[in-house]
What we know:
- The chain is mainly beta.
- It has one helix at residues 3-19; strands spanning 23-24, 37-39, 45-50, 57-65, 73-79, 87-89, 99-109, 121-125, 136-140, 143-144.
- It contains 1 helix and 10 strands; from the N terminus they run αββββββββββ.
- The strands form 2 sheets. Strands 5-4-7-8-9-10 form a 6-stranded antiparallel sheet. Strands 1, 2, 3 and 6 form a 4-stranded antiparallel sheet that branches.
Amino acid sequence: MSPITKIILIASMLYFLIGGAYLCNAQQTECDGEDSISIDQYGRYQLCWKKNTQPDATKYTVSQSTVSGQEGDEIVTVLQDECEEYICKSPPLDAPGLGTYYYTVYAHDSMGRRSDPSNEVSMTVLNYPPTSPADYIIYTDEGQS
């Protein structure tokens, strides 16, 4: 392998690992980082993130934790092929219970590597089971929404 090929390969791996995913608003067609959780009229929530543009990205996993900054349990996997042109969305999910939950997304590639976590977003479930968007408080990089 030539030195130039090695540099390109290393740069590609670093981009993938740094690129990851960025959580955004499920109602948008492109992500801008404003919101990342949307609530439907039935009280189910949906996460949305910016699609990783690397050709070797294969899937995303969503992590849910009850502690900020701590990796939690994997709650859903979304394949790259299931994403739209610029964004990926989880299926609508039922609230896990009363309390505050923290979410991050990880991108995975065809070599089995996982990106760093996306930005963290959180939601607080005020009434359980939730029946409307009013039963949630959502926090993103931009603050409460």
